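R.M. (postdoc): so does anyone remember the format we settled on? I'll just put the structure tokens first.
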């Protein structure tokens, strides 16, 4: 008697899982000006990405004198770094540690940016997975449902009188 309500609850949770998973794309936006690189990170559902890693790295093929620094987003999903003093192309990467990443590329020119009038805006929207990964995940989900339903039907058949 107790298993039927429990099975219904578990099945309902299983059906709700894809809706939870679809809210994990990251949206990264910000501004580079003379004093700071500032920005914010949000999940696709609009909630702030709190306490996730933000890293800025100099993209330098020679790997000499490379620049790298990290910080975490605050309770509103915001972050800030001092603007790097070395000219070049920089990679700004946010990573929630669960496989969701977003990357934006910014350029620090020579001479350095002078004021807010020279500010450069950047925006990057990413999703947790590529298209082929979504297809594979969907197939795995369907096989899981089929397996669970097969197990439940077989179990139900064994417990029937004469079955």
């Amino acid at each position: 008697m107790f298993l039927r309500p429990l099975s219904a609850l578990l099945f309902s949770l299983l059906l709700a899982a894809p809706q939870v998973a679809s809210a994990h794309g990251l949206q990264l936006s910000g501004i580079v000006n003379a004093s700071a690189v500032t920005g914010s990170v949000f999940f696709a559902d609009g909630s702030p990405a709190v306490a996730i890693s933000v890293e800025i790295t100099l993209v330098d093929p020679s790997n000499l004198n490379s620049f790298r620094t990290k910080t975490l987003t605050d309770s509103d999903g915001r972050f800030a770094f001092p603007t790097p003093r070395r000219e070049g192309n920089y990679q700004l990467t946010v990573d929630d540690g669960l496989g969701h990443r977003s990357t934006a590329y910014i350029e620090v020119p020579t001479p350095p940016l002078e004021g807010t009038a020279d500010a450069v805006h950047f925006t990057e929207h990413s999703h947790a997975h590529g298209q082929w990964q979504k297809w594979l995940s969907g197939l795995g989900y369907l096989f899981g449902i089929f397996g669970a339903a097969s197990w439940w039907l077989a179990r139900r058949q064994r417990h029937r009188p004469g079955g």
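R.M.: ...and that's the designed sequence above, right after the tokens. Also worth knowing: Strands lie at 26-32, 36-43, 53-58, 68-72, 78-82, 88-95, 101-108, 120-126. The chain has two domains: 26-128, 129-163.
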